[in-house]
Design brief:
single chain; about 160 residues; alpha+beta; two-stranded antiparallel ribbon; 4 helices; globular
Length: about 160
């Protein structure tokens, strides 16, 4: 499934109602549930320059293959404050990294949580590199804390991030 197809599923469930006007939805992070792969998301606020962020709000997960909600509104223990990046964000680099991430997402989805061969490790390493570049330090830290099982699998397959 392409990243667009996966994200479109949000609005085929009640999870779409969790994304209020002016808020942003995270990219999907994979985990495994009782019924298979779950695409996990969180909603957050940010400014146009991608330098100020709110804590994650409205965490939810979807069994995308069956369009079933895995969970809604999972709590998180992030402090309610302004999360701020001090340096300028290179938006063009973010776009390029996102484009490559979007190309790799369906590939990673196909072998998520499995042992990787050499080619898969290479793809996973590039996927994480691109994901980290377009996410930035603050969002990447949110992803790691909210969905540790995915990053534990990545660390196991390609080494510590």
């Amino acid at each position: 499934m392409t990243i667009k197809e996966v994200k479109a599923t949000i609005f085929e469930t009640e999870c779409g109602e969790r994304i209020k006007e002016g808020m942003f939805c995270s990219e999907p992070i994979l985990s495994i549930g009782e019924k298979g792969l779950i695409d996990n998301y969180f909603v957050y606020g940010r400014d146009a320059k991608r330098q100020h962020f709110t804590k994650p709000k409205n965490c939810f997960g979807i069994y995308t293959e069956t369009k079933e909600v895995a969970y809604l509104d999972r709590d998180n223990d992030f402090e309610d404050k302004d999360y701020c990046v001090s340096e300028e964000v290179d938006i063009e680099k973010c776009f390029d990294s996102y484009d490559r991430y979007a190309e790799l997402y369906p590939v990673i989805r196909d072998f998520a949580y499995q042992s990787c061969g050499e080619e898969s490790r290479k793809q996973l390493k590039e996927y994480i590199k691109c994901f980290r570049e377009f996410s930035g330090d603050i969002l990447f830290a949110f992803y790691r804390k909210l969905y540790p099982s995915f990053f534990e699998w990545v660390d196991k397959e390609i080494g510590n991030l």
